[in-house]
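Hello Y.,

Per our agreement to keep a running log of every chain we model this quarter, I'm adding this entry. I've kept the format consistent with earlier entries: sequence first, then predicted structure.
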Amino acid sequence: MTWRSPLALVRDALRGQRAREKDLRNLVSNLPYEGLEKGKQPNRHFAGNAIKTTKYTPLLFIPMNLFEQFHRLANIYFVGLAILNFVPVLNAFQPEVALIPICVIMSLTALKDAWEDFRRYQSDKKLNNTPCFIYSRKEKQFVERRWRDVRVGDFVRVECNEIVPADLLLMHTSDPHGMCYIETSNLDGETTLKQRRVVSSICISDPEFEPENFNSIIVCEKPNNNLNHFKCFVEKPDKEKVGAGIESLLLRGCTVRNTEHAIGFVVYAGHESKSMLNINESRYKRSKLERKLNIDVIFCVILLFTMCLIGAVGHYLWLEALPGVPPYLVPDSSGHLDSPSLSGFYMFFTMIILLQVLIPISLYLSIELVKIGQLFFITNDVDLYDADTNSRIQCKSLNITEDLGQIQYVFSDKTGTLTENKMVYRRCSVMGTEYPHKENAIRLAVLEGEETEENILFNQKTRPVKTGWSLDAEDKNSDDTHQHKRGGRRGKLSRGASSDAAFSSELETEVIPDRKLLQQISRAQSSSSSRGKIDPYLDFFLALAICNTVVVSMATAPRQRVRGFPHSTKTESPLDSLSTWMKKSATLCNIFTSCKRKPKRNRTFTEDSVIEEDHINTPVKTEGSGLQRSSLHASSQPNKLAITTDNLSYEAESPDEAALVHAAKAYGFILLARTPDSVTVRLPSGEELVFEVLDTLTFDSTRKRMSVLVRHPVTKEYVLYTKGADYAIMELLGTPYAEHLSGNQKSIAADTQYHLDCYAKEGLRTLCFAKKIVSEELYKSWSVNRQSALAAMENREELVMDSAVQLETNLSLLGATGIEDRLQESVPDTIMALREAGIQVWVLTGDKPETAVNIGYACRLLEEEDLVINMSCKNKLACTSILDCTLEEVRRYSADPRNVDTTQDISLVIDGRTLTMVLSSDLQDRFLELAKCCRSVLCCRVTPLQKSRVVKVVREKLEVMTLAVGDGANDVNMIQAADIGVGISGQEGMQAVMASDFAISRFKHLKKLVLVHGHWCYSRLANMIIYFFYKNVAYVNLLFWYQFFCGFSGTAMIDYWLMIFFNLFFTSLPPIMFGIMDKDVSAEMLMGVPELYRTGQGKGEYNFVTFWMSMLDAFYQSLVCFFIPYLTYQDSDIDVFTFGTPLNTISLFTILLHLSIEIKAWTWVHWVIMLGSVVVFFIVTLAYSGICVTCNPPSNPYWILQSQMADPMFYLLCIITTVVALLPRYTFHVLRNSIAPTPLLQARQLDRMDPCTRQQWIKEWRSFRGSGTVKRSRLSIPSSPTLETPVDIYPQSSTTSDIMGDEFTLNVTTENYQRPLHT
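Predicted structure for the entry above:
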């Protein structure tokens, strides 16, 4: 290595910094520069691939750790006092003794930090030494190196099932289509396979790829932490630019699956890779209790300074009152005595040292230990364990467990949080005709009956076939079991299912076709073949099969980690399946017609893996009007292994797509293969069509739709298939098939919209499908714009979106689908319990209002007796008017003296557009005032940013404790904005879990987590902190009272070592045990009577009054513990330690018995620790008194306790003093519990009853509470100058204009709302 001057090194460092800070980076291959020194490497300025996550180095550990610990003011305070004690004129103890407590605590903390950092070092070392393959020009092949050797500009080869070592731009794969499949579970928790493709027109996927031939320049953006976006283009030697994005980037940490090997160019390495940039320390959250604690510590500091000031002034006055110089005032070496004023000044600091324990040094450490113990009990709670997913609750934040007991607002996502996010295909509307799939509803009812072994009411009545569809008629005849079996339990997988397969239960993957729709498809095939045009019905199912991102692979692919369903050797047509299910259900007909409808528990499924074994029966082959079994073999490929539906494996990024693909498959439109350039679909006739994929316009939250542009293999037309939200598709429609439609069929859009509204009322998730024929000229011109947008580095997202919007116009509507997403188990019960606990529940969802409201009623967020205010405004003026009118009515109601004992059952439903208006600065306060009067709020059509905005506004403006719960990446901002974030490990990956403070597997677990563990954690910790302050003040005041009798000289009547032992050993474990194990009320009572949770809300148990009451009690007890022994030994000849030893013993008994009064539930652990503390006190004190002869010269405590224990007066004094000290507190508890018992005390009394009697009491109490003791209110509809006659939000019939409204709508819904029943 050549020597370089310092100036050259500085110059090179500055160049490197400028290169790293540029918005664009120009990267070239390292191969031409292989073997040259570092200064000649073109990519030398960019980070290497070695990572370092440790905080310390062996040499600098001590100073860096001390610096870290001194960020806590308490450590600075106690170290400063220990240093003051080394000043001769200020010391109160032996200087070395004063250092012991703070040194012990800081040493334990340093050991913990060192162990954690050592574990990080071991992890870094293991990762950096992971082997990988890097291309070498000298070796002419890929050679094995370590991850730490990878540099930007290298070519890296990754084998199947290996982890990607750095961010690689994909150049070559073993797949002939240039595809690579990756699993991103290490990054976002998602185990679904994602497709990555090689950069187009750069490298041809030949069997042999030569990295040395790569001579292009890669221009990419500077590193950022966005895992979903990447801007890059490759500039060829001829200056042609080829754009590349995230679809060509392999992220560090991902795992290559189903691909033999992939070769990539390193663009980001080490700490600049996207995965490393996402490793940020979580936001430090301080609990509300901790903030209150810090305020009380300040009060204690003020109290300490006051006592020290009294001591300083008292010492000055005592010296001034002396007639002369007493012999015990020893002058310094020069014979000089300090003046009384100077001595009083010194005494101020001496008193601080003496009384320093008033600030509890061990409190913070004890709190940490208590929280660790609380987390242990939470994570090991069997009720919070989910056997289906084999997962238990995860507690990621140590410092906010007690906040769980003070929650006032809960903000919840809907899909995947309240619901299963496991989609079941239910209904569809094609070309304006609705197909209810009644036979499929029968199948679902049978499946539910098999799984739950419960009777299912299903009244089969023959009805005439109708040309139109009436939702009312469907509802009156309950043969449609789509009336939300949301309450049905989905806890077990279907027989034969693997618990590791995603979307693989019969309930989700099998669809029994609608008989009429099958016949229509049969006719459509015949007409299409005769006319040479594709019928809209066929187009609809082609859109279902094509317009998605579902990955198709064989069941024998490399990533085959689970076994699927046993496959049938016999192939059945959809009609055969229909007959089988009808025969099966017929045997239950007597059950269906004779049994009463019973509410059913919700269903849960346990699919951890994402592999989906496809076992649906093969679709039909249509000949004429008949339906026959189809061939499994493609006649066009006789020499290839036949592709059967049994060995297909579907991997979908969302369960919606999986449900739609299976629905298409049930009708014979089978998705067989997908490559970057083609999609293969088998038709019901058995013919396989290979569609050339020209482009895919991916889904985004702005457009709310996705499209696939293909070339039709039969007509050779350019066809754009689009699916998306109803409002996103309806506004883009042209004239649907007007050239060959006649009569009332031209109203397809209006009919479909009506069907969509009906679907939404039932709580079904809706999607619209449309198509467009694109001319060749339009495609060519659009393709040029599209490629330039993809290659742009500035505003790429906007340009790409504009290009998509440019093509998605004048669409022809094909139809719509309704998919059911069922409620999780016990969601209604959980929400009711939270509301009874005084918690306001808000649901924030992106669904349309009709769907959200239906789910709201199903989960009991909304009640039938509620007055539901629906706010949907198009402009701010209308929004202001409705807010003012509604608030005026609410205020008028509250001011009415007749409504003193009534509650307002008001619920608010608001859409995203209106929410944006009411969150503006001028309307924010009025909206929050209205929201406070509502017991539940339902926000629809909201974006992820709106979710976090709502949480922040409520938390900051109302100053309340908030909890947010969600399951997907769109909930991360909301979870992080709340005081407590709870993630649910569901179907949408683990982003929410990784960003949360607590992670659960089911929404129902929130009930026990909050109502039981939250209450316990807060109650235990609050009472422990109050006790800690009491204990320290009561003990320190003994020293303070003694100063009045020793001239305020800073002398202690208790040995210094025994004072240290008192807090470190004798009284340290009981409060920690109290904080971990005390149980004021049993879990059964807290779950059965949720109102008990209200005791922790607001100010809670730890407030200004309870704190100062404990302080006054501590002062009283210290007075009793000091002056009764003082008066007893007055005028005697005992020495100072003989007087202090009974004080120390009495103080121990008083403090421990005080805790005994506060303990609510005694266990053997309590007895062992309490009695053990007393035994340890006597053993240590006796041993210390027996061996310490000159421990504290000139005086010592030798044999003092032994002498005291031989004196009966010692025992009598301990008993009388302790009783007198604790008598007021004991009397207070007796009177309060007798005259005005708290709800918690009443609950404890019920706990003492036998379980049967207790349950009967709870039932009677709840029935009494709900029998009318609280009157229900009804608000009149507010009047407004701009408010027309309100209409029901769910009319019997509606059009698009009715739904949208002209200006705004204020809809007040009461119990007259017509909706399906839910259980």
